[in-house]
C-alpha cells in the first residue's frame, strides 16, 4: 500500500512531515496514515507536471495510448486486490468495488483507443482566399480533483483522457480515499508513463493546495468532480487565470415510472439506479415519481427488494450494501429521513439508523413524501428511495424539472414515443430510458444546469483536454 505523495515519479513525504489518518468506514478504525500534501508540495507537483509536459505532448499518440492500454491490463490483472482496497477505504460492498475496478479500467482502455483520434480539420475558406487549418494541441498542466465515492473511476475518467491528449496532471484525491488514487499512480508508472506526467497529492487541506495550484499560471485546466457547493468556489478561483474547466457536480436524479411501464423491469432498474454504490453516486435516483395507478404495487415491490438486501462490512463477500463513507454522510441521510417522516411520510422499510459502530444506514423506502420535503431537493447520497405519485405526463415532466440540478434522469415506459418525448423534455445531460445505469466510458457523461460543465468519456471526453489551434494559410 502506497502512503506517500507521488511527485515527479517519486514517493515522497510531505514537506511539513504531516500525515493524516484514513479510516475503515465499517469500524471507524485507522487503516493507514498518508502524507498530507502542503502548498509547497502542490508547487513541487506543478513543477514536475510542467517539466514533463513538453516531452509528453511530443510523445507519439500511439505510444501514449499504449501506456494507457498497459494500465488497463494491469488494473484488470489486479482487479481483486484493487477492489479490496477500494472497499476498505470507502466502505462499499466488494461487489460494487469489483464493478468499479472494471468501470475504472475501461476508461484507460477507451482513452488508449481515443489517443490516436485527436484529429483536426482542413478546409478552403468560403471566400477562396486562403485555407483553414485546424490542429489540436494538449491544454497543458491539469489539476484533477476527485471525490471519495468512486476513488478509482473518478481518477481514471480524468487521467485517461488527459494523458491521451498529451497533458500532464496533478491529481488531488478526496482525503477519505487517497489510497486508491496512489495505487493508480503506481500502476501508471509501471505501465510506462514517464515521471512527472502523473502526480498525486493527497491533502487534508484541499482548499489551500487546490487554491495554490489554480493561482499558478502554468496550470491551464481544472477538472473537478464533487459537490456543486465546492464546484462554485473552484469555478470562481479558476476565473482569475481564466482556466479551462470541466465540472461534474451534484445531481438530483428523478426516476419516472409510467403506468404502461414493465413493472418488473422498472423495479430492477430502480434497484440499480438507487443502490449502485449503496446510493453514494451523483447518478443515484434521488426522487421516484410513479403514476398513481401503479404506485402501491411499485412501492410494495421496491420495499420487498430493498429489505432483502444484506447490509454489512463492505469487505465481506456476502455483503450487498456496505456502510456509508463517514459520519457526516450517514448523519445527513438520517436527518433527511427524519424530516421526511415528521412531514408525513411513511417508511415502507428501513427509516432509522441502527445503534453500534460503523456508518451504516438501512435500505429505506419512503411513501407519501410531501412534494416540498427537503429529501426531494437535496442529494441524499445514501440508500433511501422517496416515492411521490403523479397523475399525467405533463405533471411528471414538471416535477422532474423542478430542481436546479440536471445530471441524469430515468424514465420507464413501454411507449417508445412517450419515452423519447419525455427524454427530450427533461432538463438533464443524460437519460436512462428503460435502463437504470447510464455510466459508460464510451459515452459522454455530464450534466446541465447546476450539475456541471463539460463531458467526460466518449470522444467528447478527449476534446476537453485539447485546444483547437487555427492556422490561416496563404499559398
Ligand atoms: P464530496 O464530499 O461529495 O466528494 P466535495 O465537493 O466536498 O464532494 O469534495 C470533492 C473533492 O473536492 C474532494 O477531493 C475534496 O477534498 C475537494 N474539496 C473540498 N473542498 C474544497 C475546496 N474548498 N477547495 C478545493 N477542493 C476542495
UniProtKB/TrEMBL annotation:
Leader sequence segment: none
**Residues of the active site:** 248
Keywords assigned by UniProt? Oxidoreductase
Q: Domain named Aldehyde dehydrogenase: which ranges?
A: 11-471
Tell me which InterPro entries the record gives: Ald_DH/histidinol_DH, Ald_DH_C, Ald_DH_CS_GLU, Ald_DH_N, Aldehyde_DH_dom, Aldehyde_DH_Superfamily
Return the Gene3D superfamilies for the record. Aldehyde Dehydrogenase, Chain A, domain 1, Aldehyde Dehydrogenase, Chain A, domain 2
- Enumerate the SUPFAM superfamilies for this protein: ALDH-like
GO biological processes: gamma-aminobutyric acid catabolic process
Any one GO molecular-function label of the UniProt entry: succinate-semialdehyde dehydrogenase (NAD+) activity
Which family does the UniProt entry place this protein in?
A: Belongs to the aldehyde dehydrogenase family.
Q: Which PANTHER family match?
A: SUCCINATE-SEMIALDEHYDE DEHYDROGENASE, MITOCHONDRIAL
Instruction: Provide the protein name.
Output: Succinate-semialdehyde dehydrogenase / glutarate-semialdehyde dehydrogenase
Q: Which organism is it from?
A: Paractinoplanes atraurantiacus
